[in-house]
Design goal:
The chain has 225 residues and is of the alpha+beta class. The protein has one domain. It has seven helices and six strands; from the N terminus they run αβαααβββββααα. The strands form two sheets. A four-stranded mixed sheet has the order 2-5-1-6, with helices on both faces. The protein has a two-stranded antiparallel sheet with strand order 3-4. Helix 1 packs across helix 7 and helix 2 runs antiparallel to helix 4.
């Protein structure tokens, strides 16, 4: 009896130990998850106010529709580049876009007509959810950003994502650094800590993994439009 009681006590202690270990594990997991969510919220909130982004959605993935999307993009960038010369921050550029939204729609429609199409278009300004995106050595985390969104026709084709202000739309890839002019303008519009966060001197893949965590957590605290 004593031996059974002894072994029973060991088994019971082992079970209790495992229960405590499991509870501790889940407690730590919750703390880590909460910390990541808080970090993601802060990053998304602090950076989203510093950029005005552009999102163009093609009618379809056909070669012709994708080429049309790029031509519309080029027309809009040519026009907005002139408008933004005097802009000091994202709010200035947003105000200009708001005042010229009809002009943007007109430019888009003219390009569509010029290329021989008759697609409807929708140009809207709002806060939209963006995935993690790379612009040379700049990586912006997933989150909601102020943006000009242009839908062409059925808007079922691949997207074009870029940053209208500060002007990063002409920058593709991430194998080289930003041109000096764009780099200086970016530094002017965001804090030193924010600049270091999105242009860290470490492997780009490491930064992307970090921001991928934010992208995965984004649905927990950001509602999609």
């Amino acid at each position: 009896m004593h031996r059974k009681s002894f072994y029973g006590g060991i088994i019971l202690s082992t079970i209790n130990f495992h229960k405590k270990s499991i509870c501790t594990f889940f407690f730590i997991l919750i703390l880590i998850t909460t910390a990541f969510i808080t970090y993601a919220k802060n990053v998304e909130k602090n950076l989203s106010e510093k950029f005005l982004r552009l999102h163009i959605i093609a009618n379809s993935n056909s070669k012709e529709d994708q080429e049309l999307k790029i031509k519309i993009r080029d027309k809009i960038l040519d026009e907005t580049k002139k408008w933004f010369i005097t802009c000091k921050n994202a709010n200035d550029s947003l105000e200009i876009i708001n005042k010229n939204i009809d002009k943007i729609s007109e430019i888009t429609k003219e390009e569509i007509k010029k290329e021989g199409y008759c697609y409807d278009i929708q140009a809207v300004i709002g806060n939209f959810l963006f995935p993690t995106k790379s612009y040379k050595n700049i990586i912006l985390p997933a989150g909601k950003y102020k943006a000009l969104k242009i839908k062409i026709g059925d808007a079922k084709g691949e997207n074009w994502w870029c940053v209208l202000f500060p002007p990063l739309c002409f920058i593709n890839g991430f194998d080289t650094k930003l041109p000096l002019e764009e780099e200086n303008q970016l530094k002017t519009n965001i804090s030193e800590n924010q600049y270091e966060l999105i242009t860290e001197n470490e492997e780009i893949s490491t930064i992307k993994i970090k921001f991928k965590i934010i992208e995965l957590l984004a649905p927990l605290f950001i509602k999609k439009n």
